[in-house]
Design a protein that fits this description.
- With about 100 residues, this protein is α+β, with helices and mostly antiparallel strands.
- It has a single domain (about 5-90), classed as RRM (RNA recognition motif) domain (Alpha-Beta Plaits, 2-Layer Sandwich).
- The chain has two helices and six strands, in the order βαβαββββ.
- The strands form two sheets. The protein has a four-stranded antiparallel sheet with strand order 1-2-6-3. Strands 4-5 form a two-stranded antiparallel sheet.
- The longest helix is centred in the middle third of the chain and has 12 residues, at about 40-50.
- The protein is globular, with a radius of gyration of 15 Å.
- The relative contact order is 0.25.
Amino acid sequence: MTNNIKSVNIDIIKYPIITDKSTQLLEENQYSFAVDNKAHKKDIKTTIEYIFNVKVKHINTSKRHPKKKRVGQFIGYKKRYKKAIITLDNNYSINLFPDN
């Protein structure tokens, strides 16, 4: 874990991505998050380790380009975002679905 609190920007992580594929990846200790478009892998790693108090093994990122959406005669685009798939060490896990 890092002790350098000054360099951690919590706003990099936007929200967890919960889809069918991402819930299957939870069994392999991999978690998907939407992150800031300008975030680097080192920044994402330090932020995840700081927020969830876990040890990150490695990170895969991809930029999702905007898709066309049509509503009647109007054509628009979905927003562009960056997706990070984070693999944790075997001893750690993140609880995305807390019990009420």
